[in-house]
Amino acid sequence: MTVTVGIVVFPGTNCELDVIEAVAEVGGVGRLLWHGDSSVGGVDAVVVPGGFAHGDYLRPGAIARFSPMMESVGEFARAGGPVVGICNGFQVLTEAGLLPGALQKNAGLKFRCGLADLVVASNRSVLTTECVVGETLRIPINHFEGNYTCDAETLARLHAEDRIVVRYADNPNGSIDDIAGICNDGGNVVGLMPHPERASHPLLGSADGQKLFAGLLAGADATV
Which amino acids are annotated catalytic? Predict the structure, then answer.
């Protein structure tokens, strides 16, 4: 069965076509979902991609969370459907309450862009099922507000429930506990700041993102 991945598009989103290409590289089909619509339309997985949803004019993700599509995405996630938020999409998922914590401005107030080494911390999430704990993936970053933060109680819960998905080998933004990505308690909702869709082909400098999208498709196929 071919897995269909819905990619939510907001005004200001700019990575939706990259995600479609990355999904195709591992045998899936991408379908664009407009933020103003109210249904995910029977897709098998959802990606909230990177960009600047609604221009980030209030703060990243704060306006996007009120889009009609996000109510449907929330229902899909609560039913066990795989949902991944990448960069701005991670910010949207935290604002929507689908993931804990928040993303703040990078340490030193510097925009960060380049390849980052990520260490897989858990393979219980829908995004890392094809990975081995401890392996390193080279995935690009491109953000100004990617500094993940949460209170001590939330951090303890993330540790206890094995919900830290990937960590930076060399923290570029001041993120607490070197966190680059986390998941919900069910492992089906994942947010990460790095861009695996930009590491989906050797010509892009790394194809390590393919392993993450392959995991997403496998997880989606298992839930159908």
Answer: 87, 195, 197
